[in-house]
Design goal:
The structure is a single chain. The chain has 360 residues and is mainly β. It has one domain: Beta-galactosidase, Chain A, domain 5, CATH 2.70.98. The protein has 2 helices and 27 strands. Strand 3 and strand 4 form a beta hairpin. It starts with 5 loop residues before the first strand and ends with a strand.
C-alpha cells in the first residue's frame, strides 16, 4: 500500500527591480494534484490535476516566468483586492466622507475602478510562509496595505492562506482587519480551461450554478441595483448547460458583456456551500466551487484577444478560459440594498472558498 501524502517545497523564482526576491511554492498530493503559488500577488500560478485516464496537466492560464507575471494585466491567478470587481466611477462614500479611487477600467467606454486599482493586491509582494498539518500543506501570505493606498482608507492587515488537501481540495481563506472604517472584497481570479489545451475554447464546458438570480448591469457593467430572475433566460444554469449554448443569444445583458461577465446571486444558505459545478466532457475533469459569499462572478474570457502570450508562448484567444469569482456584489459600497462590504475596527473580514478537483 502506498502511503497518502501531501508535500510542499519552496524556491526563489526571481527578483523585483528593487532586488527583493520572489518565491514559488509547490504543493502536491498523492493523487497527482500540483499547485504552484507565488508570493508576488499571492498568485495562484498553476494547477494541474488528472483527467479520467489519470493524465495530469496544467488547466490554468498564466505565465512561465516572473517577467510575465509582472505584466499580468488580465489578473491570471490573482488574489485581487482591496475590492474585487468594479466600483462605479471609482467613488464611494463611507461615514459621510467620499473617497476617490483610480478608474483603471472602462467597459462600454464608461470609466470605473477594477480589482483594487492601478497597483492592487495582485501587484504586491506578500510575505509567504509554508504550512503543513495532517492531510494538508499550504502557504500563508500576509500584506499590510497602508492607509490611503490606492485611495482606500485605513491600514488594512490582510492574510490569505491557501491549503491543498489529500482530498483534492484547494482551500483559500481570506482574512483582514483594519484600524479605520474601510471596504474589503477579496477573491481569487484564476482562469480555467479543464481540457488542458489553452488553444481551445471553453464553450463545451458544462456549468451548473446554485443561483436563481443575476445582477442587472448597465453598459459599463455596473449593477443597477436590480436582480433579474434567470428562469427562461441565457443566464439560467440551475441545470447543467454548456457555456456556449446560449452565449451568443439575443439578450441585452449578454451583449453588454460580450458574453458572460456577470454576478449571480447565490441561494442564501449559512456557511460554506456549493456555488458552481463545471464538467469538461472530453477529459472528464470536474471543478466544484464552494463559498460562503453572496455572489459569484462568472467570466468567460470575453476580453482575451490573442495579444497576451502566456505559458509555452500560447496566445490566449477569446473564451479560452473561464473564471469563477465568489465575492460581495460589485459596486456594493454604492448600493445600500446589497450585502455590506464595510469593515470596521474590531471586526474581522473573512471569506472562505474551495476549489474541489475530480474527473468522471
Amino acid at each position: 500500500m502506498i502511503a497518502m501524502s501531501v508535500e510542499i517545497t519552496s524556491s526563489p523564482y526571481g527578483h523585483l527591480s528593487d532586488g527583493r526576491t520572489v518565491h514559488q511554492f509547490i504543493l502536491t498530493n498523492s493523487h497527482g494534484v500540483r499547485v504552484a503559488l507565488l508570493d508576488y500577488g499571492a498568485t495562484l500560478a498553476s494547477v494541474a490535476f488528472p483527467d479520467r485516464t489519470g493524465k495530469a496537466v496544467d488547466v490554468t492560464h498564466g505565465y512561465d516566468d516572473l517577467t510575465g507575471w509582472l505584466g499580468n494585466k488580465s489578473y491570471f491567478g490573482a488574489n485581487v483586492g482591496r475590492f474585487a470587481n468594479r466600483i462605479a466611477a471609482g467613488k464611494f462614500s463611507l461615514d459621510g466622507q467620499t473617497y476617490t479611487l483610480a478608474t483603471n477600467n472602462a467597459p462600454g467606454g464608461i470609466p470605473c475602478h477594477l480589482h483594487g486599482g492601478n497597483s492592487g493586491f495582485d501587484k504586491k509582494l506578500w510575505e509567504g510562509r509554508p504550512l503543513k498539518n495532517d492531510g494538508a500543506v499550504g502557504v500563508e501570505f500576509r500584506y499590510i496595505s497602508p492607509n490611503g493606498e490606492e485611495g482606500y482608507p485605513g491600514n488594512l492587515s490582510a492574510k490569505i492562506t491557501c491549503w491543498l488537501t489529500e482530498q483534492n481540495c484547494l482551500r483559500i481563506e481570506f482574512h483582514a482587519t483594519t484600524d479605520q472604517a474601510t471596504i474589503v472584497n477579496l477573491t481569487n481570479h484564476a482562469y480555467w480551461n479543464l481540457s488542458g489545451n489553452p488553444n481551445t475554447q471553453i464553450t463545451n464546458h458544462e456549468v451548473r450554478l446554485e443561483a436563481d438570480g443575476v445582477l442587472e448591469v448597465d453598459k459599463g457593467l455596473i449593477p443597477t441595483g436590480a436582480i433579474q430572475p434567470v428562469k427562461d433566460t441565457p443566464f439560467d444554469f440551475t441545470r447543467s448547460e454548456q457555456i456556449g449554448r446560449r452565449i451568443e443569444a439575443n439578450n441585452a445583458l449578454l451583449k453588454i458583456g460580450n458574453g458572460y461577465d456577470h454576478c449571480w446571486v447565490l441561494r442564501e444558505k449559512p456557511g460554506l456551500r456549493l456555488a458552481a459545478h463545471v464538467h469538461e466532457p472530453v477529459t472528464g475533469r470536474t471543478l466544484e466551487l464552494f463559498t460562503d459569499q453572496p455572489g459569484l462572478q462568472l467570466y468567460t474570457g470575453n476580453f482575451l484577444d490573442g495579444r497576451t502570450r502566456g505559458k509555452a508562448g500560447v496566445s490566449y484567444q477569446l473564451r479560452t478560459a473561464f473564471c469563477l469569482e465568489p465575492q460581495k456584489f460589485p459596486d456594493s459600497p454604492n448600493h445600500a440594498s446589497f450585502p455590506s462590504a464595510v469593515l470596521r475596527p474590531g471586526e474581522v473580514y473573512s471569506h472562505v472558498m474551495e476549489y474541489r478537483f475530480g474527473a468522471r
